[in-house]
Amino acid sequence: LGGPELAGGCGCAYPEFVGDEVVSRSNAIVQRLTRAAFAAPGWSREWLGTLPMYAACRVGGARVSIVHGDPRALAGWALSAELFSEPKVRAWLEQADADIFASTHTCVTHARLVDRGPARPLGAVFNNGAAGMPCFDGELWGVMTRVSTDWARAPPDSIFGVALRELGVRVDAIRVRYSAHAWQRTWEGWWPEGSAARQGYGARMTRGLRDWTVERAFATTGDALREVRPAAPPAGRGGEQERARHSL
């Protein structure tokens, strides 16, 4: 967001597997959002420039590194579901002196556990995907990442989570509930038929992210499974089918 006109494109740094039509739509969307933002009272380009590219905090015994894209770049994709590499992430955790990476940017929710060897506790990567946009097929709510010292209990709105007992923390992907109908009406008012956002995200806003499931979002193997503590199904939607869908 360097100015009212975004000559350098949307800044998403899309990888090669993303089609040109997606890139073009994203450029058009960000151009419009940028013009609207800089026309709003109190919006400050100087203030934006002071914001850090990452943040670090300690929760319990865990050091959490919060990034937008990945540790290398603000718009990096190395923590995405498509490009995740455990050896690379293991090295980054070591270099950052971190136990957990919390990221976003790629709009696809996923999480991985990282085996750091017998002498180190498991690490984790949680990418929330999107807070204000549906993240799973057939589901109309967003997702955020929660890190808590209450490692023994899954929060009520957890989609999936993991107890990192050696670090004294629990990490969960949490539902962000909102009125999907009201939000769709507002969103469609901003982005009418034929607009770049409606073409790119219209189906996702009304039906969720096609073919993306909880089971695909939390993929982990081997010894790491011993640490997984799947969240209970949400109240009001019980039954064996719902419990099975939330069991990892």
Automatic annotation (TrEMBL):
<feature type="region of interest" description="Disordered">
    <location>
        <begin position="229"/>
        <end position="248"/>
    </location>
</feature>
<feature type="compositionally biased region" description="Basic and acidic residues">
    <location>
        <begin position="239"/>
        <end position="248"/>
    </location>
</feature>
<protein>
    <recommendedName>
        <fullName>Metallophosphoesterase</fullName>
    </recommendedName>
</protein>
<dbReference type="InterPro" id="IPR029052">
    <property type="entry name" value="Metallo-depent_PP-like"/>
</dbReference>
